[in-house]
Amino acid sequence: MIVAQVRNVKPGHAVIHPNRDKWSCKVTRLIIVAILLGSAALMLILTIGGWSKLQGLKPVDFVTIALYVIFAIYIFRWTRGLLPIAAGLAILLLIVVVIAALGAAGTSWFQRGHAGFGPAQSLFGGKGLGADVLGTVTVVLIPVEVALIVLALVGFVQGWNIETEVTAEEADKRGSKIVARGPEEATA
Predict the structure, then answer these.
(1) Do 75 and 127 sit in the same domain of this protein?
(2) 14 DSSP β-pair partners
(3) Do 128 and 111 share a structural domain?
């Protein structure tokens, strides 16, 4: 059961999130959302374009893509708590991507373009993307995931969840979104 949070706001005052009004927080949030959606798109390209060559992680790919899209939606709505989770998932994906890009003994996409390896088939049964294209997309994911890790932790430190009680006039003057408002002051 979800219980509403009780706020005892002084009369004539309002509760705001002052850090959400800062341009640095807004830019960080938008960049994180863009990186999450871009990562999901790159993973979708790899999954669909190299479907026949993926080894057992096909369901995990779709779960990761779905999680990245869900994280992007919630982080766009200022959900700060998902930032370390997104960074942790990005670390796991980074490990897999580095192995897929630079791996030994035929595990790299680039090595699958040599003689003896068949071309990848796509998810829809047609010819998939070439080994060099898949390798390049995999290599591009490395700095994208590193950027996601760093920016998610920067966003977490920015304190998007901090609430401050200010006078109603001050909240209106700042143009802040008001979280809660106290009762109006009685006039005698």
Answers:
(1) yes
(2) 166, 181
(3) yes
